[in-house]
Design a protein that fits this description.
Structural class: alpha+beta
Largest sheet: 6 strands, antiparallel
Strand content: 35-45%
Length: 94
């Protein structure tokens, strides 16, 4: 199993968590509330958690390639939803 963690500094972590999960819910299985979410992508899972001052991401997949697909989707959607005040996920591997 491959793991990837990331954090996106923001003053509105709950707002971004809700927007991302709501959007993903249209195409994949997602469980979420204002503080946490679990998105089940075809390639693996990503848990989103709203913390004080940041939105955290914990992703798992069977391969590095699949993990890269999750990372790409998240990066693209964060950029889309924050285009007025651009934000980015700061990724690090365990």
């Amino acid at each position: 199993m491959h793991y990837l963690k990331g954090s996106m500094p923001t003053s509105e972590p709950s707002r971004y968590l809700t927007r991302l999960c709501y959007h993903f819910h249209k195409k994949i299985d997602v469980d979420y509330d204002a503080q946490q979410g679990l998105a089940r992508f075809p390639w693996g899972d990503c848990r989103l958690t709203a913390q004080e001052g940041a939105l955290d991401f914990e992703c798992t997949a069977a391969s590095a390639e699949q993990l890269g697909q999750i990372q790409h989707v998240l990066n693209e959607h964060v950029a889309l939803f924050s285009r007025k005040s651009p934000l980015a996920v700061q990724w690090h591997t365990d």
